[in-house]
Design a protein that fits this description.
With 131 residues, the protein is an all-alpha fold. 77% of the residues lie in helices and 0% in strands.
């Protein structure tokens, strides 16, 4: 069973308030320095976690028209020549668009650009053209 601390992590405002409280109160210097260090680190970690949550939400969220246009321009005319080539293409585009690779592959396939990010589709396309 999770503790109350893991259910309700400290909010940034509460951490900042606690830091202000420690800074303005009289207490032995070694305790004060330790508390300031711990609270400052907690504020940094909360900020980093918040950025990660925002990035995750963006990478999983609705596609913006500008992202779709960029995806199309990055993949237009590309055809995977191997599984490795397809994976490299997906990773390159995912990095540029700040999206997860699965999202890139799904959207590209939805837009008819799957041959650039999925070797199976590229191989089927090649076989169809040869027939």
């Amino acid at each position: 069973m999770p503790s109350d601390d893991t259910k309700y992590p400290p909010q940034p405002a509460a951490l900042h308030a606690a830091l202000r409280f420690v800074i303005t109160r009289e207490m032995p210097a070694e305790y004060k320095a330790t508390l300031i260090e711990v609270l400052t680190q907690a504020i940094r970690e909360e900020g980093a976690a918040s950025l990660r949550r925002e990035a995750d939400a963006q990478s999983q969220g609705e596609w913006q028209e500008s992202e779709i246009d960029r995806l199309k321009s990055l993949l237009q005319g590309r055809v995977a020549t191997s599984w490795q080539h397809a994976d490299e293409c997906v990773m390159q585009v995912a990095t540029q668009l700040h999206r997860d690779p699965v999202s890139i592959r799904n959207k590209a396939t939805e837009l008819g650009l799957g041959s650039a990010v999925d070797y199976r589709i590229a191989r089927q396309l090649k076989q169809t053209r040869e027939e």
